[in-house]
Amino acid sequence: MIEVRPLTAQDVEAYRGVRLAVLRSDPPAFVTTAAEFAARDLAGIAAQISPTENAVTFGAFLTGELVGILTLARETRPSIRHRAGIYGVGVLGEARGQGAGDALMQAAIQHAQQWNGLTSLHLAVVETQHTARKLYERHGFKVWGTQPDAVQHDGQTYSEHWLWHDIRTGQ
Known about the structure:
alpha+beta; Aminopeptidase; seven-stranded mixed beta sheet; 5 helices; EC 2.3.-.-; GNAT_dom
């Protein structure tokens, strides 16, 4: 059974391991490279994943082990504070197909619904990530546009699909 909870600074080593593994398993899927992330110090990562008023990183646990991650961050500038983004979603290969992605998305949407004045969630997914896109669409996200020439990896260029979810209506 998958358990999901917000991560804290005490989870930094497990988070670092999962994040590095997902960055290495499918480099084109992420803007951050494994090398960039590996160069970051643990204190900086711990500060990043510690919950704040406007951001939370969720972890999905399978038999007590961290197997998936997702960050939800609310915009802070007044004119866009009604929006939040979902970033850095990843599930370890051996844990895929067991509900971790669904559980992470449910936790993020439920958390976002508690933020006063928030109306929508936003995310981007690289064109090669068909399974991830299906996950997002199952949770009410809809593609509103595609950015060509969005990400480059090893000399290849990929487009990104931009999706949004109206949390007021669930669509």
